[in-house]
């Protein structure tokens, strides 16, 4: 039941701002890595 109250709170925030609220993510890992096929890992 505690999750239901969280979901309701999120829906109310979405309706108030008229947009989806998503966390911003930044990739901070290394650049220019070579792709390795899954069967070669």
Protein model, in words:
It is a single chain. With 41 residues, the chain is mostly helical. It contains one helix and no strands. The protein is elongated.
Biggest beta-sheet profile: none
Q: Write down the overall mean pLDDT.
A: 84
Model regions low in confidence, pLDDT < 50 over at least 5 residues: none
Distance N to C terminus:
43 Å
Order of helices and strands: H
**Computed CA radius of gyration, to the nearest angstrom:** 19 Å
Q: Count of helices?
A: 1
Helix content: 25-40%
Shape: elongated
Name the beta content range: under 5%
* DSSP, total strands: 0
Structural class determined from secondary elements: mainly alpha
Topology:
Elements: H1 2-17
């Amino acid at each position: 039941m505690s999750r239901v109250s969280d979901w309701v709170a999120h829906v109310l925030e979405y309706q108030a701002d008229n947009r989806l609220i998503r966390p911003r993510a930044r990739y901070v890992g290394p650049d220019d890595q070579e792709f390795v096929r899954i069967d070669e890992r």
